[in-house]
Write a structure and sequence with these properties.
With 115 residues, this protein is mainly β. The strands form 2 sheets. Strands 2, 4, 5, 6, 9, 10 and 11 form a 7-stranded mixed β-sheet that branches. It has a 4-stranded antiparallel β-sheet with strand order 1-3-8-7, with no helix packed on it. Strand 5 and strand 6 form a beta hairpin.
Length: 115
């Protein structure tokens, strides 16, 4: 059974940084894109960033220039480096992995940015 385990969330002040990690465990024969989504209270889940196996990245406009996604294929791990955090970045961040023709989701890690 495949599990995605996220870590790295927490409370940070405006302008601070956090690094999220997500590791996929279990048997995945073929991993495709890996990414991060977030859901703020009262809002829909939205894409933050994703990264294909070919190295193509896609970022939400709101995080371009501040967040960087990367992955370590040998460790089945995806990272999200978040700099210059703003209160509007406060949300639960979910890891997403596309593998073996399906989407897998983590349980989420909470990020709170205080003003």
């Amino acid at each position: 059974q495949v599990r995605l385990v996220e870590s790295g969330g927490g409370l940070v002040q405006t302008g601070g940084s956090l690094r999220l990690s997500c590791t996929a465990s279990g048997i995945i024969v073929s991993i495709g894109a890996m990414g991060w989504y977030r859901q703020a209270p009262g809002k829909q889940r939205e894409l933050v960033a994703d990264l294909t196996t070919a190295g193509r990245t896609n970022y939400a406009d709101s995080v371009k220039g501040r967040f960087t996604i990367s992955r370590d294929n040998a460790k089945n791990t995806v990272y999200l480096q978040m700099n210059s955090l703003k209160p509007e970045d406060t949300a639960v961040y979910y890891c997403n992995v596309y593998g073996d023709l399906r989407n897998y989701w983590g349980r989420g890690t909470s990020v709170t940015v205080s003003s």
